[in-house]
UniProtKB/TrEMBL annotation, chain A:
GO molecular function: ATP binding; glutaminyl-tRNA synthase (glutamine-hydrolyzing) activity
Gene behind this protein: QRSL1
EC class name: ligase
Catalyzed reactions: L-glutamyl-tRNA(Gln) + L-glutamine + ATP + H2O = L-glutaminyl-tRNA(Gln) + L-glutamate + ADP + phosphate + H(+)
Lineage: Eukaryota, Metazoa, Chordata, Craniata, Vertebrata
The name this protein goes by in its record: Glutamyl-tRNA(Gln) amidotransferase subunit A, mitochondrial
E.C. no: 6.3.5.7
Alphabetized HAMAP family for the sequence: GatA
Signal sequence bounds: none
General function of this protein: Allows the formation of correctly charged Gln-tRNA(Gln) through the transamidation of misacylated Glu-tRNA(Gln) in the mitochondria. The reaction takes place in the presence of glutamine and ATP through an activated gamma-phospho-Glu-tRNA(Gln).
Gene3D superfamilies membership: Amidase signature (AS) domain
From TrEMBL, chain B:
Family: Belongs to the GatB/GatE family. GatB subfamily.
Its job: Allows the formation of correctly charged Gln-tRNA(Gln) through the transamidation of misacylated Glu-tRNA(Gln) in the mitochondria. The reaction takes place in the presence of glutamine and ATP through an activated gamma-phospho-Glu-tRNA(Gln).
Protein name: Glutamyl-tRNA(Gln) amidotransferase subunit B, mitochondrial
Native organism: Grus japonensis
Gene this protein is translated from: GATB
UniProt domain Asn/Gln amidotransferase: residue ranges: 395-544
Principal localisation: mitochondrion
C-alpha cells in the first residue's frame, strides 16, 4: 500500500480499502523506522492524525474534498506552516513557529492532504547535497537498497558498508528521500537552481520545477526570489500532474503569479510523440558528465527517434556562462533576503547586548552557517556601488541572453529539450564533503539552473540504475506554461524506461507487518 | 551698511534675506529680491569679490493618505497603540511578499499630475539596504531607477519684506516623485539603554518629492513647501500635517559665487514645521557663508535642526558613508500605468490605473482656486492667499457672502481682520469658530441695513464669541445698540458735544477740518456707538456752519 502511487492510494481511500487514519499511521511508523535517513526535521504526528481523522469523517460522509483528501504528504522545511516549526535547517530559525501557512501548503491542506512533517534540507536551501543543514545530512534511501548493496564492493578496508551511504542531492533532499522511501506520497520541495530536480534524480523520483509564476511563492522562505519556484516530488509523473493541478494558479499574495486561471489537467495514457520535435542541447554535454549518463541520454534520444519523433541537436550558446551568472544573481538576492534576520522580530537573538549593531553581528554569526554567510558576503560585494555595473548588471544581461537562447530554440520548432539532470549518480557522503559547498553547487547545478534563469518548466524523470545500482534521471525542459505538454512527454518516457522500484528492507518489512496487523485485526 | 554688518551674524543674515535693504542697492536694482532663485545673490564677502549665492533644494516625504499601507493590508492610523497595526509583511516575517496598494499608486499619479510631471507608464521598484532597528526587512522598497513621475514644476508665491501687498511668484522644478515605504519608529531609552521599536508606521506609503535646487533662502523653501502642502491637501493624496510627520522636509543647502560650480552641500534634517524650515535653511546658509569667509570648508554631512537653539548641528554619522546596495525588487513586477490610448479593451477597469481618468477628476488646485476667488468676489490676490491658507476659511467666506447683501470686498475685511485674528488669538481652527457663517452674515446684514453702526457691530461680535446662542438681533436689542433714529435726540447730543469742546470748535472754524473727526468720535462715545457717523458728520457740519 505504501508503495502505491498517489493516484492509486487515492482510489483505495475512495473505495475504503484503507482509511486516512490507517494510512497516516503507517506512514508515521515508517518515518520512525527510517529515522536514520534524517529525511524529516519535524514530524507533526499529532496534527497529522487530527487531519487524517477529519479526512476520515469526510470519506464516511461520502464527501471527500478530492484526489488529495487523506493523502499523507511532506513539506520542505522552508515553507511556512502555521503551528508547526519552520527552521530552514538553520540555527537562525530553530524553534520558529510561523503564524501562517504558505499558499502552497494551504492549498494542499484545503484539499484534505495530511501533513506529516517538515523535511530536511541544506541551510536556507543553499546547497546541492542536503548535507549542510544544522540537523545533519540526509541519507539517500538507495544507500540501503538491495540494488545498491548488491553492487557494492569495498575499495579498501577502511571503507565499510556503514560509511558508504550516498547523499540525496539537494537542497530538497529530505523531500526526495521521503518520497523515495515511501514515507509519504508527495512532497513539496523548492527549486532555485535545481534543488528539486537534483535530489529527485539521485533518489529516483519525479521532480517537477514548474514555470516561474505558476505556483505561488508566498510563504516559501526565499533563496532567490526571481528564480525560486515550489517544486513537486512524487513517485510518478501522473502524481506530479495531480499535485500541480492543486497548487497552480494566481495568488493575490504573490504579485509574480500568473493572472490567468489555470486548468488542472489529466495526462493521456497513450501519447503520440511522433509529431514532436525533441531538442538535444549540445552544450549539456558538459565536462564531467559520466559516460553512463551520456550513454543513457543518447539511448533516451533514440527512444524518441524510434517512436517517430524528430530529434535534433540544438545549441544554447550561452549555457557555459550560466553558472557564473547564477552565482552572482543568487548571492546578491541572498544578501538582500537574509538582511531581515537581525534577531529583532523573530528567530535567534544573540545575548550580546553592547549595542544594536553588535547584537546584529553576533546574531547573524551564530545564526548562519559558513555557506550562508559566504553567500551574503559575496552578494553584498556584487551589490556595492562600485561593483554593481560590473557584476550584477552584467549577470542580468547574461541571464537575458540565456533566456533568449531558449526562446530561439523553442521558436525554431523544438517542443521539448532532453538533457541529463546530473553529471553523475549520487556520491558517498564521505566523498561529497571533500569539496566545499560552493564548488559542489557549481558542479551540481550546472545542468539545472539555466531553466531557473529562464523561468522554464523542467522535470526529472528517473530513467535507469547506474552500474553502482543508483538512480539516474534525465531532464525534460518545456516551454513556459506548457506543463501539460512537458508532463505528457515525461509520462510517455516514464512508461518506456520502466524505472525499477527501490528494494528497501525496512519498507518491505514494515509494509508487510502492517498488512499482517491489519489482517489479524480484521479477523478478530 | 551691508559692509558694516558683515561681522555680525544676525544683521548679515537680515541683509541678504531682505536684499540689503540699506543704502547699498541690491544687484539689479530690484529691492528685496536679492534671494530670488537663480540670480539673486548675497552681497560680497570680506574679500570684496563676488557675492555669495545660496542654493537650496528640498526632499519632501509625504505620507500617502490611504486606509492601508503601501504593500500590505495593515491599517494606517496616527497614534495607535504601538505595534497594533503590523501585518506579517510589515514585520518582515520570512516568506511574506509585497502586494502593491492601488490607492497609493493613484495618489502618486494625482500628485504627479498636479505638479505638472510626466507620469512614467512603466516604473520600477528597488530595494535600498541598510540595517536599522525600525527597518525590519533590512531594506526599504523604493523607486530608485525609474520613479512614477518626473520633470514637473511647482509655482509658489511669497511676499517681499513681509508685506502682503508685494507678492512674487516663483517656480521650482520637481525632479521626481517616487513611491516608497515608510520606516517604523525607534524610541531610545537611554536610562535603561534600550531601544523600543514601533512598527505601526513601517510600510506606510510615502511619496518622495524631490525639488531641484532652485530656491535660495528659507522663505522660498517655506513658501514652496506650504504650496505643496496645500496641493496635497486639496488632492487628498496626503493629509500633509507636519506635526504628525505626514510631511517631512529635508533641505539640501550650499553656497557658491555666481558663475562658479555649486558648493559642497549639507543636508538638514529634523525639521518639523514650515516656520522651522525657513529658520533652519537661513541658519545653514549663514553658517556656511561664515565658515567659508573665515577660511573654513563645508563638509558633505547631514545636520539636524535644533529648534530650541535655532541652529543646525552635525548628526552622528552612521559609521561613514553608507552604500545602500540598490537592487531591483524581484517580488514586484514593473508598475504599468495606462492612458485612454494605451488602455487594453479587455482589461478589468478595477485592476488598471488610468492616468487620463485621474487627470479628468483632478480638483481645482490652490492657484486656480485663488484666481477664481479674486475674479468672482473682486478681492485682492493676497486675500485669496490668506483664505486658502486657513483650512475651511474659503468656505466660511463664501457662505457669509451667500447669506448677506454686503459686498464681498467688505465681507473679506470682517473675515480676515475680525474672524481670523480672533481665531488665531485663541488658537482655534475655522471649524471650531464659535460664530458660524450664518451668525456673521446675520450681523453683517444688520450693519448693511444701517440698523447698527460698525462700532456696534464689533460689540455684537464680541458678544457672539461667547457662544451663548443669542442671535445678533437679540444682542442688539438687549444691549440697545440700534442706531438712534430720533433726529432730535441726536441733534441734542451733537450740540452738547460742540458746547463742551470750545477749543476744537475754534480749530475747525479756523480751517482745521481734521478736528471734526474728534467731535464725531465724541458723539459716538456719547451714544455708545449707536449713531451713524455719516449722519453725525452732517449734523455737526451743519451746526458748526451756523
Amino acid at each position: 500500500m505504501l508503495r502505491a502511487s498517489l493516484r492509486e492510494v487515492s482510489a483505495a481511500l475512495k473505495e475504503g480499502h484503507v482509511t486516512p487514519t490507517e494510512l497516516c499511521q503507517r506512514c508515521l511508523s515508517l518515518i520512525k523506522s527510517t529515522k536514520f535517513l534524517n529525511a524529516y526535521i519535524t514530524v507533526a504526528e499529532e496534527t497529522a492524525l487530527k487531519q487524517a481523522e477529519e479526512s476520515e469523517k469526510r470519506y464516511r460522509r461520502g464527501q471527500p474534498l478530492g484526489v488529495l483528501d487523506g493523502i499523507p504528504i511532506a513539506v520542505k522545511d522552508n515553507f511556512n506552516t502555521a503551528g508547526i516549526e519552520t527552521t530552514c535547517a538553520s540555527n537562525m530559525l530553530k524553534g520558529y513557529i510561523s503564524p501562517y501557512n504558505a499558499t502552497a501548503v494551504q492549498k494542499l491542506l484545503d484539499q484534505g492532504a495530511v501533513l506529516l512533517g517538515k523535511t530536511n534540507l541544506d541551510e536556507f536551501a543553499m546547497g546541492s547535497g542536503s548535507t549542510d543543514g544544522v540537523f545533519g545530512p540526509v541519507r539517500n534511501p538507495w544507500s540501503y537498497s538491495r540494488q545498491y548493496k548488491e553492487k557494492f564492493v569495498p575499495k579498501s578496508h577502511s571503507q565499510d558498508e556503514k560509511s558508504n551511504w550516498v547523499i540525496t542531492g539537494g537542497s530538497s533532499g529530505g523531500s526526495a528521500a521521503a518520497v523515495s522511501s515511501f514515507t509519504c506520497f508527495a512532497a513539496l520541495g523548492s527549486d532555485t537552481g535545481g534543488s528539486t530536480r537534483n535530489p529527485a534524480a539521485h533518489c529516483g523520483v519525479v521532480g517537477l520545477k514548474p514555470t516561474y509564476g505558476l505556483i505561488s511563492r508566498h510563504g516559501l522562505i526565499p533563496l532567490v526570489n526571481s528564480m525560486d519556484v515550489p517544486g513537486i516530488l512524487t513517485r510518478c509523473v501522473d502524481d506530479a500532474a495531480v499535485v500541480l493541478g492543486s497548487l497552480a494558479g494566481h495568488d493575490p499574495k504573490d504579485s509574480t503569479t500568473i493572472q490567468d486561471d489555470f486548468k488542472p489537467f489529466e495526462l493521456p495514457n497513450v501519447a503520440d510523440v511522433s509529431k514532436l520535435s525533441i531538442g538535444i542541447p549540445k552544450e549539456y554535454h558538459a565536462p564531467g558528465l559520466s559516460s553512463e549518463i551520456l550513454a543513457l541520454w543518447s539511448k533516451a534520444a533514440d527512444l524518441f527517434k524510434n517512436a517517430g519523433a524528430k530529434v535534433i541537436e540544438v545549441s544554447l550558446p550561452h549555457t557555459c556562462y550560466s553558472i557564473v551568472c547564477y552565482h552572482v544573481l543568487c548571492t546578491a538576492e541572498v544578501a538582500s533576503n537574509m538582511a531581515r534576520f537581525d534577531g529583532l522580530e523573530y528567530g535567534h537573538r544573540s545575548d550580546m547586548n553592547k549595542s544594536t549593531e553588535s547584537m546584529y553581528a553576533a546574531t547573524r554569526r551564530e545564526g548562519f552557517n559558513d555557506v550562508v554567510r559566504g553567500r551574503i558576503l559575496s552578494g553584498n560585494y556584487f551589490l556595492l556601488k562600485q561593483n554593481y555595473e560590473n557584476y550584477f548588471i552584467k549577470a542580468q544581461k547574461v541571464r537575458r541572453l540565456i533566456a533568449n537562447d531558449f526562446v530561439k530554440v523553442f521558436r525554431s520548432g523544438v517542443d521539448i529539450l532532453l538533457t541529463p539532470t546530473t553529471l553523475c549518480d549520487a556520491v558517498p557522503y564521505m566523498e561529497f564533503i571533500k569539496e566545499d559547498n560552493r564548488t559542489r553547487s557549481a558542479q551540481d547545478d550546472i545542468l539545472t539552473q539555466a531553466a531557473n534563469m529562464a523561468g522554464l518548466p523542467a522535470i526529472n524523470v528517473p530513467t535507469a540504475l547506474s552500474e553502482r545500482g543508483l538512480p539516474i534521471g534525465l531532464q525534460f525542459i518545456g516551454r513556459s506554461f506548457q506543463e501539460k505538454q512537458l508532463l505528457t512527454v515525461a509520462k510517455w518516457f516514464e512508461k518506456q524506461v520502466k524505472f525499477p522500484m527501490i528494494q528497501l528492507e525496512e519498507v518491505k518489512r514494515h509494509d508487510h507487518d502492517a498488512f499482517q496487523h491489519q489482517k489479524s485485526a480484521s479477523f478478530s | 551698511m551691508a559692509v558694516a554688518a558683515r561681522g555680525c551674524g544676525g544683521v548679515w543674515r537680515r541683509a541678504w534675506q531682505r536684499g540689503a535693504g540699506g543704502p547699498s542697492p541690491a544687484p539689479r536694482g530690484q529691492r528685496a529680491v536679492a534671494c530670488n532663485a537663480r540670480g539673486g545673490a548675497v552681497p560680497a564677502g570680506k574679500s570684496g569679490l563676488a557675492p555669495w549665492e545660496p542654493v537650496v533644494g528640498l526632499e519632501i516625504h509625504a505620507q500617502i493618505s490611504s486606509n492601508s499601507k503601501l504593500f500590505s493590508g495593515s491599517q494606517v492610523q496616527f497614534a495607535a497603540p504601538p505595534n497594533s497595526l503590523v501585518s506579517f509583511f510589515d514585520a518582515s516575517l520570512p516568506g511574506t511578499l509585497p502586494v502593491l496598494n492601488r490607492r497609493c499608486v493613484e495618489a502618486a499619479v494625482m500628485t504627479g499630475l498636479a505638479l505638472n510631471c510626466s507620469i512614467n507608464k512603466k516604473s520600477l521598484f528597488d530595494r535600498k539596504h541598510y540595517f536599522y532597528a525600525d527597518l525590519p526587512a533590512g531594506y526599504q522598497i523604493t523607486q530608485q531607477r525609474v520613479p512614477i513621475a518626473v520633470n514637473g514644476s511647482l509655482s509658489y508665491s511669497l511676499c517681499i519684506d513681509n508685506k502682503m501687498s508685494q507678492m512674487v511668484t516663483k517656480t521650482v522644478r520637481i525632479k521626481q516623485i517616487q513611491l516608497e515605504q515608510d520606516s517604523g519608529k525607534s524610541l531610545h531609552d537611554d536610562t535603561r539603554s534600550q531601544t523600543l521599536v514601533d512598527l505601526n508606521r513601517a510600510g506606510v506609503g510615502l511619496m518622495e518629492v524631490v525639488m531641484e535646487p532652485d530656491m535660495c533662502c528659507g522663505e522660498e523653501a517655506a513658501a514652496a513647501v506650504r504650496e505643496l502642502q496645500l496641493i496635497l491637501q486639496t488632492l487628498g493624496s496626503s493629509q500633509a500635517v507636519m506635526a504628525e510627520g505626514q510631511l517631512r522636509v529635508d533641505a539640501n543647502v550650499s553656497v557658491h559665487h555666481p558663475g562658479e560650480p555649486y558648493g559642497v552641500r549639507t543636508e538638514v534634517k529634523n525639521i518639523n514645521s514650515i516656520r522651522f524650515l525657513a529658520k533652519a535653511v537661513d541658519y545653514e546658509i549663514q553658517r556656511q557663508i561664515e565658515e567659508l569667509e573665515s577660511g573654513g570648508t563645508i563638509l558633505n554631512e547631514t545636520r539636524a535642526f535644533d529648534s530650541k537653539l535655532g541652529c543646525t548641528v552635525p548628526m552622528r554619522d552612521k559609521e561613514g558613508k553608507q552604500d545602500y546596495r540598490f537592487m531591483p525588487e524581484p517580488n514586484l513586477p514593473p508598475l504599468i500605468l495606462y492612458d485612454a490610448k494605451s488602455l487594453p479593451a479587455n482589461m478589468n477597469h478595477q485592476q488598471v490605473v488610468n492616468i487620463d481618468l485621474i487627470h479628468e477628476r483632478l480638483p481645482d488646485l490652490p492657484s486656480v482656486k485663488r484666481a477664481k476667488l479674486v475674479e468672482r468676489y473682486g478681492i485682492l490676490p493676497e486675500h485669496s492667499f490668506t483664505l486658502l491658507n486657513e483650512d475651511g476659511l474659503t468656505e466660511f467666506f463664501e457662505n457669509v457672502v451667500k447669506q448677506t447683501q454686503m459686498k464681498p470686498k467688505k465681507v473679506i475685511g470682517w473675515i480676515l481682520n475680525d474672524l481670523l485674528s480672533y481665531l488665531k488669538q485663541h488658537s482655534l481652527t475655522v471649524k471650531e469658530s464659535p460664530v458660524s457663517s450664518f451668525l456673521l452674515a446675520d450681523l453683517l446684514n444688520l450693519l448693511e441695513k444701517k440698523e447698527i453702526s460698525s462700532t456696534a457691530a464689533k460689540q455684537v461680535l464680541a458678544e457672539l464669541w461667547k457662544g451663548e446662542g443669542k442671535t445678533p438681533l437679540e444682542i442688539v436689542k438687549e444691549k440697545k445698540l440700534e442706531l438712534i433714529q430720533d433726529q432730535k435726540e441726536l441733534e441734542q447730543i451733537c450740540q452738547a458735544v460742540i458746547d463742551g469742546q470750545e477749543n476744537e470748535v475754534m480749530a475747525i472754524k479756523a480751517g482745521n477740518l481734521k478736528v471734526l473727526n474728534k467731535l464725531i468720535g465724541l458723539v459716538q462715545r456719547e451714544t455708545r456707538g449707536r449713531s451713524n457717523p455719516v449722519v453725525v458728520k452732517q449734523l455737526l457740519e451743519k451746526k458748526l456752519s451756523q
